[in-house]
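Appendix B. Chain record.
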Amino acid sequence: MEHSVHVTRCKEYDPNRIRKQVEEHLDLYPKFNDLTGKKVLLKINLLSASDPKKAITTHPVFVKETVLELQERGAKVIIGDSPGGLFNPNSLKKAYEATGMTKIAEETGCELNFNTDSHIEKLPEGKFTKSFNICDYTRNCDLIIAMPKIKTHMFCGLTCASKIMFGVIPGTEKVKYHTRFPSMIDFSKMLLDLTVLSKVDLFLVEGILGMDEKGPSQGNPRDVGLIVSGIEHTSIDLQVSRMVDLDPNKLPIMIAARDLNIIKFDEKIKVTGDGADFKLSPPFKPAKGGALLTDPPRFLRRMSIYLSTNKPVISHKKCIGCGICAENCAGETIKIVNDKAKIRYSNCIRCYCCHELCPHEAVYLSMKESGLMNYVTDLAWNYFIGKEK
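Structure tokens predicted for this chain:
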């Protein structure tokens, strides 16, 4: 079963239908038959404190029915993730409440993780990265079920099975990984190693409501109507990309998997379930305007991404100067000036963390200011008018 993908059709958040389908998926994997005395972590997508209707996070109905099914099999269930931004009990409490997870815990008796400690783990067999700082909560369990949503991603192309495990990196520590791996391909290679290190026992993908275009947080919610499960993350991602008609040759996360010889794009995947022949119509609109796929010399890279990619732009009408974008800026290029965020574009690496994490939707993406004259002007401001301390 390790290179198989099971797909079932589920068009709405009907608890009874979801419960039956979750049961069907779990029955395929023997280690989930009897969970008596086992602690099972549901590693959800908890990107931010967002309304589930926006399709940013794993939907609470899907999570609740999975919790109930696991409990019936004897498991003690823990829900956890490290959202973008600060990783502390207060930020977790806010995210759990906004996404419906607090209510699930109250109704089912499952546990919400508030452990924010982390540790270094080595991965000698890593193809690209040999060690990571990961959250302790991932090791305080017997089994891990990762529960991603099907969404596009401005940096990786697709956020699904291979991207969700970035949530085992604690809070603002994620910024360091963006800085260390500024190209999309290198960043994706790092994610693939991280997924191996995370030792996920099952990926249970929520694709009832997905997101295309400006994913993972400001795209368009899309009715997809799928639940997908499997053990091998890149096989899941490849099959999902086929079903929503995203070209793997244009998805950094898939290009990285191919370059590391993990998967081939013409690979035949054994697909079972009543959604085996599913094809989304109309197909997903891809996330456009990401940074470069390669990593040329620094000065060429800075100029190229400035001239050829979407820029994050601050809406002064919406910005309240909360500082979340500055705290999570991988290029350390955002400052809060007069209670508004300001970006020095010559240092911007186009990771789009500011766009992804802004709770006020005050960051949008635009090509209008990405011209040579603006690049020269920005450099002049940066180096001659004076850098902001």
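Further analysis of this model is presented in Appendix C.
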